[in-house]
Amino acid sequence: MRGTRLSGDTPAEALLRSLGITSPDEIDLEAIAWSIGAKVREMELPSCEARIIGCQDQAIITVRNSGDPRRRRFSIGHELGHWIHHRGRSSICRSSDIGNPEAASQLEKQADRFAADLLMPRYLFVPSVAQLKRPDFESIDELATTFTTSRLATALRCVDIGTWPVVLICHGPSGRRWFKRAANIPDDWFPREDLDPSSPSFPVLFGTVERTRIQSVAASLWFDRRDASRYRITEQSLKARGGTMLTLLTLTDPKMLTQGNR
What are the IrrE N-terminal-like domain coordinates in residue numbering (predicted)? Predict the structure, then answer.
């Protein structure tokens, strides 16, 4: 039985419902692509991650046949986003264009949002998050296994959904590269540019530690607000691609979510 589109559904979620998809293991991207006139093929692509070429109501999506299969799935979803939203334009996407929070192009960001909605639709993702004990990378990895998505894409989706009061931060050796926070966190909880040497995460970025356990720390290690030392948060970090580090901060004190609470 095919599902009925709900008023809050995004285009990707509406597409999934129209196909009667009710569990993550039913999200067959090749079949979904075929249903909207796109054929998926894999081949060697030395200069890009994925591309789509379309004519009228038919398209061919080509994705690189090497690398992480979960990233390949996101690349297919990304190109389908171009097909739905940017039909009539050719698209050749480099690795840095797909699933990259630093990407500047609004077209690429829109394609990424479509991919996230397609691979991790809210009507399936939110109930899965609700079953987890706490916000940490172990929970994120569990979700990534369930939805066959990468750790980064899953972590970003957790922030987008807004169930957890979390901030996801990426650091490189020269400092903070990007961050994303849940919508319920006030803007004045703005992460510091630098990484405090006393943070338990410091050996992850500059040493050999692969992953820290989740632990309580002073909020002032991560935020510049003058009253930050009054609060405790939890932090957990792990090594990521390209010599970077991902950190998940959870604002555990409800007072931190109140605007103007200084």
Answer: 58-158
Residue 94 lies in a domain: yes
Q: Of 119, 150, 180, at which residue does a domain stop?
A: 119
User: pLDDT tens digit string along 134-162?
Assistant: 999 999 999 999 999 999 999 999 999 99
Domain count, the chain: 2
CA angle 160, 73, 57 (to 5 degrees): 100
* Contact call for residues 215 and 235 (beta carbons, < 8 A): yes
Closest CA to 144 of 133, 156, 134: 156
**One domain for residues 91 and 176:** no
Rounded CA-CA distance 151/169 in Å is 13
CA separation for the pair 81, 10 (Å, rounded):
12
Check which CATH number belongs to the domain holding 35 and give it. Answer: 1.10.10
What is the bridge-based pairing of β-strands 58-64 and 38-43?
parallel
CB 161 within 8 A of CB 143: no
The mean pLDDT value of the chain amounts to 91
Please check whether residue 237 is in contact with residue 211, taking contact to mean a CB–CB distance below 8 angstroms. yes
- For 80, the domain range is 11-119
pLDDT digits (tens, 9 = 90+) for 47-89: 778 888 888 889 999 998 888 899 999 999 999 999 999 876 6
